[in-house]
Amino acid sequence: MAAPLLEKLSESLGSPEPAVRLILSILIAYPCALVYRRFLFYQPAPVIHLFHTLSGLALATFNFAGSQIYHSAVCILVQFLMLRLMGRTVTAVLSSFIFQMVYLLAGYYYTATGEYDIKWTMPHCVLTLKLIGLSLDYFDGAKEPSQLSPEQKDSAVHTVPSFLEVCGFSYFYGGFLVGPQFTLRSYQRLVARELTDRPGQPPNSMVPAMKRFALGFVCLVLFATFSPSFPDSYMLTEEYKAQPFWYRCVFILLWVKIILYKYVSCWVIAEGACILSGLGYNGAEDGKPKWNACANMKVWLFETTPLFSGTILSFNINTNAWAARHVFKRLRFLGNKTLSHVATLMFLSIWHGLHSGYFMCFSMEFIIVIVERQAQSLVKDSPALTKLANSPLYPFIYVVQQLIHWFFMGYSLVPFCLFTYDKWLQVYSSVYFCGHVFFLLAFLAMPYLRRMLVPRQERSQKKQE
Asked: Measured in Å, how far apart are the chain's first and last C-alpha atoms?
């Protein structure tokens, strides 16, 4: 009965059935959160773990039929056995990392189609980070507090979790399908009724949850309305190639603005469900509760920043924080931030999948961020550029900067969305590899611009620093 209804709904919305199932599943997290608040908030921990496990498994079954739902169960069981049998050892951490990543990459390899498909590997990539993070947090639990950073102290797991607890953490309905990332300690605080602005009572989070839901729904409507006019496939057509150069560039600029709402909408709606359950509680500031613990998007910053680094800071926040905490900062022994940065981006590329487009996207991100930092430093050190940035011309400069920012953001994401090199090379060729040319020339020109625009005294002080 449900299948024909879903087929009709997907036809009426003009969206693939798997996408409709995914959106419905993200929305179902809200009733699940209400059930938890109304009936389970005061129940013993095992009952809550069981509810979260069964609800997550139900969502997995709804989205991925047959043997696909077994993949998550296998990885959770293996991870639990590693915690129990190997203990808080480096061997356990390395074994966890290797097993979970190899399993995920094998899944990518055997299910790859060259298109964006919603299949079991989508939630599994979220689960992979959860389970690797769990092994690292469990390892940190054996260290002295003086050896841990404030973040590690907050997330370190000091007791051996039960299997049901690990299942509840892994399958939690608010983050199983599309995230956000959160730690086992956050989940334990939720179950222990600590994540609330009303001690001993369900959190007063209905209004902030509905605000995030409304914002996510607006983004979803924007994506559903405009995405048919900006399909990825159009950039591979002869018609697109026949258009003037400026048209091709404008299309990429508008395309990326619309296509990113697909991610924004899912993450913001999922965040609302986490807030409703209490997982989004992040303490209080000036007597007012904060609900941003599970925020995966800073939508206002995302829409207004003219900087590439600003967009990165506003987008997929929890995954970026996970990578910073568990990859970048743990590579401190390399003694070089650039090497740590490159290694972190390499890990994120592989984690996303095996397609060459992911590696191209993250390599472009690295180049762009480096050039942007140099440009910001140049503006800061140059009296003439600083004066121009603070002049009445800034609104015009801001608009131009935004256009450049969003075009090259789209340029970077073309490989990410088209996956295979034959496709993204075709699009890059059609715009003459202008992004690579622009940032290569900018990188080479920065030292000369600094000599021209920064006084010698300022340059000397900079070198001494």
From this structure: 70
Sequence letter at residue 334: L
Residue % of the chain over a pLDDT of 70: 97
Residue 76's contacts (CB-CB under 8 Å, 6 or more residues apart) are 127, 131, 166, 167, 170
Catalytically annotated residue among 63, 316, 318, 320: 316
* Contact present, 197 and 203 (Cβ < 8 Å): yes
| Those residues with Cβ within 8 angstroms of residue 199's Cβ, 6 or more apart along the chain or in another chain | none
3-state helix, strand, coil in the chain (%, to 5): 75, 0, 25
Note if 316 is an active site residue. Answer: yes
CA distance 337 to 370: 12
Residues 41-59 have pLDDT tens digits of 999 999 999 999 999 999 9
Eight-class DSSP state of 20: H
Residue 285 bridge partners (DSSP): 288
pLDDT level of residue 238 (50, 70, 90 thresholds): very high
pLDDT digits (tens, 9 = 90+) for 52-85: 999 999 999 999 876 788 999 999 999 999 999 9
Active site (annotated) includes residue 204: no
Using CA atoms, how far residue 357 sits from 244, 261, 330, in Å, is: 25, 20, 27
Q: Among residues 324, 323, 312, which one has the least CA distance to residue 260?
A: 312
Residue-wise DSSP of 286-334: TTEE---TT--B-HHHHHH--SHHHHHHHBSHHHHHHHIIIIIGGGGGG
- What's the confidence (pLDDT) of residue 3? 65
**Could you check whether the bond before residue 203 is cis, i.e. omega within 30 degrees of 0?**
no
In this structure, how many other beta carbons lie within 10 angstroms of the beta carbon of residue 109? 11
Contact 54, 167 (CB under 8 A): no
Within 10 angstroms of residue 286's Cβ, the number of other Cβ atoms is 5
The model's pTM is 0.93
Among 282, 292, 341, 352, which one carries the catalytic annotation? Answer: 352
The token pair at 57 is 């498994």
Model confidence at 460: pLDDT above 60:
no
CA distance 412 to 369: 12
Helix (H) or strand (E) holding 124: helix 121-140
